[in-house]
Amino acid sequence: MKFRILTAALPLIALAACGDAGGPGNSTTAAASVAAAPAPAGQDWTQTVAQTDQGGFVMGNPNAPLKLVEYGSRLCPTCGAFAAAGMKPLTDTYVKSGKVSYEFREYLVHGAPDFAPALLGRCVGTAAFFPVLEAMMTAQSTILPKMEDAQAFQATLQGKPPEVFATAWAEKLGYIDFVKQRGLPEAKARACLSDKAEIDKMVKFMDVGTQKGVSGTPSFFLNDEPLQGAVSWEQVEQRLKAAGA
């Protein structure tokens, strides 16, 4: 699955790719416990958020011994299930301790429709990135039914540049109003949807993920090693505990 060239529009990718991590499970043999690390005075580690050179946003202790990375799609129901079950315990138990950092990298497994929430989710900036990410995952129950005619709708966008189809999908799925309700002005939202440089950057980072072996969402890495077969919070937490968290 390559996204090297953005011409008129990206095709829709098979929805089966969502939730397909593949491969056998990694060992869950327990390692020695890693030490907790205090956050800066007056803060907790969930307030430390930065954009990474790999195209993601990371929350937590920059020097955390355990670095969890998720390649995810905001329209992937399995990613939504992981967020619903795991975001609170991940942040409250593991990120706040300073033992684990959590990075989310966009992986546009559905092709064209994924650009709208990804671009807008990045547009809100570092402080709001994770709250908006979680809100988008929670909103899937109202968003996903609007994709029932996805193939037909995408056909109407053939021959259009990427920034046009990103805006069209944002309007169809209701994401412009969604981010407006969370403090992002509509003019800025539309500017982000039309940002060709940001679109090209996301395609480049998609390629990097594919080269690392990512083929479905969610795909998790711990200290740059793939957590094969782990797609649920329960499975990921087992790996964190086995690594000493």
Structure, explained:
The protein is α+β, with helices and mostly antiparallel strands and 245 residues long. It has a single domain, classed as Glutaredoxin (3-Layer(aba) Sandwich). It is 43% helix and 11% strand. The chain has ten helices and six strands, in the order E-E-E-H-E-H-H-H-H-H-H-H-H-E-E-H. The chain has helices spanning 77-95, 112-123, 126-138, 140-143, 150-155, 162-173, 175-180, 186-193, 196-211, 233-242; strands at residues 49-51, 57-59, 66-72, 100-106, 219-222, 225-226. It has a six-stranded mixed β-sheet with strand order 1-2-4-3-5-6, sandwiched between helices. The chain is globular and about 55 Å long.
Attribute tags:
Thioredoxin-like_sf; globular; alpha+beta; single chain; 10 helices; Glutaredoxin; 11% strand; 245 residues
Query: DSSP strand (E) fraction?
Result: 5-15%
Total helices: the number is: 10
Question: How big is the Rg?
Answer: 18 Å
CATH domain class name? Alpha Beta
CATH level-four homologous superfamily name:
Glutaredoxin
Major pleated sheet: 6 strands, mixed
Helix proportion? 40-55%
CATH architecture: 3-Layer(aba) Sandwich
Alpha-carbon distance between the termini? 34 Å
Q: Examine the coordinates and then state which fold CATH places here, giving the name of the CATH topology.
A: Glutaredoxin
Spatial strand sequence of the major β-sheet: 1-2-4-3-5-6
Annotation, overall tally of beta strands: 6
The SSE order reads EEEHEHHHHHHHHEEH
Overall mean pLDDT stands at 91
Gross geometry = globular
Keywords: Signal
InterPro entries: Thioredoxin-like_fold, Thioredoxin-like_sf
Organism: Sphingomonas aliaeris
Protein name: Thioredoxin domain-containing protein
